[in-house]
């Protein structure tokens, strides 16, 4: 049986874990919760979610993302009336920027990849328009434990 939705506890009904800001929920807490304490969320659908993020960026920020597939990358595609071949470096990419345009491979990418590429563009603009803030942010990133 395929799961079409998940039930999760509303934030105010989640017990706080021992670590700071860590919420923990056990299956029994969800199973025994009153319906008013639950939120129903649809099952993740990577392609649907990817397209939702692409459309949101276009509608709210004017950022155009082109959805492509493995064949488009392998064989090239027509862009503005010209046949364009992508560099070999993007053949296995989930998403990439080419000539200032975000391309997302629907067969490999997800919503996170769209946001990742968008941030490259946003940070590039920030670097030019407000270098002080840009370098302040990048110095903070180097202090993260996963860096």
Describe this structure in words.
There is one protein chain. This protein is an alpha+beta fold. It has two domains: 5-42, no CATH class; 46-141, no CATH class. 39% of the residues lie in helices and 22% in strands. The protein has five helices and nine strands. The strands form four sheets. Strands 5-9-8 form a three-stranded mixed sheet. Strands 1-4 form a two-stranded antiparallel sheet. Strands 2-3 form a two-stranded antiparallel ribbon. α2 runs parallel beside α4 (111-129) and α4 crosses α5.
Q: Please indicate the percent range of residues in DSSP E strands (runs of 2 or more).
A: 15-25%
Overall geometry: globular
Secondary structure: helix percent: 25-40%
Number of strands: 9
Q: In order across it, which strands form the biggest sheet?
A: 5-9-8
Helical run tally: 5
Order of helices and strands: EEEHEHEHEEEEHH
Distance between the termini: 41 Å
Q: In total, how many domains does the architecture comprise?
A: 2
Low-confidence stretches: 1-6, 16-25
State the secondary-structure class: alpha+beta
Largest sheet: 3 strands, mixed
Mean pLDDT: 78
Radius of gyration using CA atoms only: 21 Å
Subunit organisation of the chains: single chain
Q: Helices and strands in order, then pairings?
A:
Elements: E1 5-9, E2 15-16, E3 23-24, H1 27-32, E4 38-42, H2 46-61, E5 65-68, H3 70-75, E6 77-79, E7 82-84, E8 95-98, E9 101-105, H4 111-129, H5 131-141
Parallel strand pairs: 5-9
Antiparallel strand pairs: 1-4, 2-3, 6-7, 8-9
Summarize the structure.
The protein is α+β, with helices and mostly antiparallel strands and 147 residues long.
């Amino acid at each position: 049986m395929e799961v079409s939705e998940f039930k999760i506890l509303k934030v105010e009904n989640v017990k706080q874990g021992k670590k700071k800001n860590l919420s923990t929920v056990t299956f029994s807490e969800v199973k025994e919760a009153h319906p008013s304490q639950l939120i129903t969320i649809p099952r993740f659908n990577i392609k649907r979610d990817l397209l939702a993020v692409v459309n949101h960026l276009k509608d709210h920020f004017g950022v155009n993302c082109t959805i492509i597939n493995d064949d488009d990358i392998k064989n090239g595609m027509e862009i503005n009336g010209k046949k364009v071949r992508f560099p070999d470096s993007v053949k296995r990419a989930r998403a990439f920027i080419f000539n200032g345009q975000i391309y997302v491979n629907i067969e490999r990418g997800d919503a996170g990849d769209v946001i990742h590429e968008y941030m490259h563009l946003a940070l590039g603009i920030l670097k030019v328009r407000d270098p002080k803030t840009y370098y302040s942010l990048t110095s903070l990133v180097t202090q993260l434990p996963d860096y």
